[in-house]
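REQUEST ID: PR-0412
SUBMITTED BY: lab tech R.K.
PRIORITY: routine
TASK: structure prediction, single protein chain
INPUT:
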Amino acid sequence: MKTKITDLAKRFDVSVDELLEIKQKKLTKEDWTGRGKGTWFTEDGVEKVFLELEAPDVLPELLYGTFLHEAPNDRWVYAKIEGVDGKTAVLIPRKLRAKLKGKKFPIHAITDNRDTTYRHAALTGYNL
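STATUS: complete
OUTPUT:
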């Protein structure tokens, strides 16, 4: 069952603009439909919004990248990620390696105390 963004804002006592920002940065397109105040969240989307509001660092940042070329290791490819300069190594599922050529795909940026790594969204388990 879907939930309207204005109802969700009342339930969590946050502004609609804050929910729209979370939608853009953290959720995949399968988690919501619509635009602006006409946005509806799926059950999974509501759950992810709740997680983000309770613990902001739980969900990794969602980015999109375009496949550039393969890396020597089968599990990695090089991609041009929106908002990141230059080409970046991205960890992917091996079975998707041939299917990603020339395509745009979702990437999660995972930051720890040393640096940031980039992984295909299917590997993190937050988009299933």
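NOTES: The first helix runs from residue 5 to 12.
REVIEWED BY: pending
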